[in-house]
Specification:
This protein has 354 residues and is an all-alpha fold. The chain contains 17 helices and no strands.
Length: 354
């Protein structure tokens, strides 16, 4: 999962202003969320923001999460499935269960870990397993959890490194699209090979999604179709596998960004195969805000900006409520923020903040 501070600092100015309006609209928590949001926008680190807030660490993380949920709401990203809601369960198990006994905490964390395994999203289990290790000190399971903690921590570090390399990859890709120079292509391929190497050493669904997406980008945007020979891919099979990996990632902004990039790449692929109607349909299910203006790991969003601009409408995003689908062609002037599906109700939050 991406850190909240990263997501906030990577918002463009227009989106940051609208997210701030969402935070302001919630009078109960605005005095807590806005200083943290503003601190991050100024470039201050998490430690500084926490010290200024005068909140204990767990309370700070819960308030920080409200900012995260506001960003999801702005982009109209919802956790609708049981698998997606696991992110909320995981978060509160780590930061919200302050009054549970040691036995209860163990049982809760073990159950969540099994659920993460069930949904094949255990690549994000590093903090959970580390907590289980601390709860099993001086027991027969201590060494087991110590081994698992090292394993998942290594995966987490590898994925964080892949994200940084992927951001650099996209920066170079944008430069190459503007001016295709051999030295830029060499750098681009070098970044891809490094991502592939890290993925090979620490294979997991998140790493594979980034690796496949980088490979697709090289194929479709940099004219390097020969790279498909590595693994015996075709563009069609690689596209399908990238979609599958990305769709099965844990819920959150990371998946949102990668799906936006994949939409760009699928559009390019369909157009190159003269499937114009299908290409337009792919774009029609995503918002212009998501495809062009979201951070998307610094992907060159402008490659299809002219095409998208033809269909763009002036939209003010509002959070979706439980069973209400906001129409993208309506301007919503009265924003009413609700915490999602009861997990963020004021009653529950107050328990953790007192």
């Amino acid at each position: 999962m991406l850190a909240v501070i990263q997501i906030v600092q990577q918002l463009n100015e227009a989106h940051a202003a609208k997210v701030r309006l969402l935070l302001e609209s919630d009078s109960a928590y605005a005095e807590l969320t806005l200083p943290i949001f503003d601190s991050y926008r100024k470039g201050e680190n998490e430690k500084t923001a926490q010290e200024k807030s005068n909140l204990k660490f767990n309370s700070f993380k819960i308030i920080e999460r409200l900012i995260y949920r506001s960003i999801l709401s702005f982009y109209q990203v919802e956790d609708l499935s049981v698998k997606d809601i696991m992110q909320t369960s995981l978060f509160y198990a780590l930061y919200g269960s302050t009054q549970k006994t040691k036995v209860e905490k163990k049982e809760e964390l073990e159950e969540i870990f099994h659920q993460l395994k069930r949904f094949h999203i255990e690549q994000q289990a590093a903090k959970l397993v580390k907590e289980l290790q601390s709860l099993h000190i001086n027991t027969p399971l201590e060494s087991v959890y110590a081994y698992m903690s090292n394993y998942y921590s290594a995966i987490d570090r590898a994925n964080q490194e892949i994200i940084q390399q992927f951001i650099q990859f996209n920066t170079i890709l944008g430069e190459y699209i503007e001016e295709p120079k051999n030295n830029l292509l060499k750098e681009l391929i070098g970044k891809y090979k490094l991502i592939r190497k890290i993925t090979t050493n620490h294979s997991n669904q998140t790493a594979l999604s980034f690796c496949y997406t980088a490979k697709l980008s090289l194929t479709l945007l940099a004219g390097q179709s020969q790279i498909l020979l590595d693994g015996g891919w075709t563009t069609s099979t690689l596209m399908a596998e990238t979609k599958n990996c990305t769709n099965n990632l844990p819920f959150g902004m990371l998946r949102f960004y990668l799906k936006n990039i994949l939409t760009h790449l699928e559009y390019k692929w369909l157009v190159s195969n003269d499937k114009i109607n299908e290409a337009n349909e792919v774009f029609s299910i995503s918002s212009t805000k998501s495809l062009i203006e979201a951070y998307n790991f610094n992907f060159p969003n402008n490659i299809h900006e002219k095409t998208l601009a033809k269909e763009a409408t002036e939209v003010e995003f509002m959070p979706k409520h439980s069973n209400i689908n906001a129409s993208l062609n309506i301007i919503h002037k009265n924003i009413s923020y609700q915490f999602n599906k009861g997990y963020f109700g004021r009653e529950r939050l107050s328990l953790f903040l007192n």
